[in-house]
């Protein structure tokens, strides 16, 4: 029978086909028969295969869910918020990224080494409902960064920061922990984000004035800076302050709540902070307004 089967293959070479004209080789004790499957037969077989596949996938999911439910029943995870501060000079931003050092990666490592989270949660942070309130780019620091996640109820104590800080690098500190509702999401619940742009005051000095650390900015110049910064307040299209976006991209429109030089932010080493507060801000919308302020408020060089 095998010889007859091979002879049929030789006589009828395989060609391209569609599902509706699929030719089927049927082998039986009587020999090999060539017949065409109807579309109904093909669809029926596909449906059965999908049902079988779906059933197997559901079974696997059920097993995983049951295992997770059994683990959570013992650990009793509850939603909390963590207050972080960090010096971003040594990190490639806040958000976890493969093959580079990030703040989130160090946080997850510390939680794992402290036996607070499981290895599966370290590998898949979404399984513990992890969310950050805001992102920071490479080299950017944060004074008050909030993240939300689910932790075992027995670990939610006032000793948690000290326990985790033992495994964190000195550039990152866990300041506090607080219980929140199970539906709390740090990103959704955040109603504003404040960024600061530090700049030397002598950047606003004129050609005739001493352009060095010995320069002392005047009250008139500070007033002029604040007046210029008010141009950013409100809803504007920040396309000219972004990169890699099209002019009509809706994401270029951002709402700025406030933008000003804070009086308390004038430091002893002649640095000042420009504070920008908005609902959501792009990286460029933080850095480039500061540069534009320099160019607009500083007197002409030539």
TrEMBL record:
One of its GO terms (molecular function) is RNA binding. Substrate binds at residue 195. The active site is at 137 (nucleophile). It comes from the Eukaryota. One of its GO terms (biological process) is mRNA pseudouridine synthesis. Signal peptide: none annotated. One of its GO terms (cellular component) is nucleus. Keywords: Isomerase, tRNA processing. It catalyses: a uridine in tRNA = a pseudouridine in tRNA. CDD domains: PseudoU_synth_PUS1_PUS2 (cd02568). Gene3D superfamilies: Pseudouridine synthase I, catalytic domain, C-terminal subdomain, Pseudouridine synthase I, catalytic domain, N-terminal subdomain. Belongs to the tRNA pseudouridine synthase TruA family. This is tRNA pseudouridine synthase A. It comes from Araneus ventricosus. The gene is PUS1_0.
């Amino acid at each position: 029978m095998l010889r007859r089967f091979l002879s049929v293959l030789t006589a009828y070479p395989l060609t391209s086909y569609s599902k509706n004209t699929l030719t089927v080789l049927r082998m039986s004790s009587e020999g090999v028969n060539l017949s065409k499957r109807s579309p109904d037969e093909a669809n029926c077989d596909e449906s059965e295969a999908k049902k079988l596949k779906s059933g197997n996938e559901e079974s696997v999911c059920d097993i995983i869910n049951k295992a997770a439910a059994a683990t959570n029943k013992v650990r009793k995870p509850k939603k909390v918020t963590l207050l972080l501060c960090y010096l971003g000079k040594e990190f490639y931003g806040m958000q976890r990224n493969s093959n580079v050092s990030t703040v989130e990666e160090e946080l997850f490592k510390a939680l794992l080494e402290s036996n607070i989270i499981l290895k599966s949660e370290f590998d898949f942070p979404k399984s513990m409902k992890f969310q950050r309130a805001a992102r920071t780019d490479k080299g950017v620091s944060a004074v008050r960064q909030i993240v939300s996640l689910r932790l075992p109820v027995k670990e939610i104590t006032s000793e948690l920061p000290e326990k985790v800080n033992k495994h964190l690098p000195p550039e990152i500190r866990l300041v506090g922990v607080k219980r929140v509702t199970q539906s709390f999401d740090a990103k959704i619940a955040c109603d504003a984000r404040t960024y600061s742009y530090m700049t030397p005051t002598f950047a606003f000095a004129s050609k005739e004035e001493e352009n060095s650390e010995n320069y002392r900015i005047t009250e008139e110049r500070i007033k002029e800076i604040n007046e210029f910064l008010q141009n950013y307040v409100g809803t504007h299209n920040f396309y000219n302050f972004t990169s890699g976006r099209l002019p009509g991209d809706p994401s270029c429109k951002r709402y700025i709540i406030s933008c000003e030089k804070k009086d308390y932010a004038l430091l002893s080493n002649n640095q000042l902070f420009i504070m920008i507060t908005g609902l959501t801000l792009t990286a460029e919308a933080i850095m480039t307004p500061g540069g534009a302020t320099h160019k607009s408020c500083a007197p002409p060089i030539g």
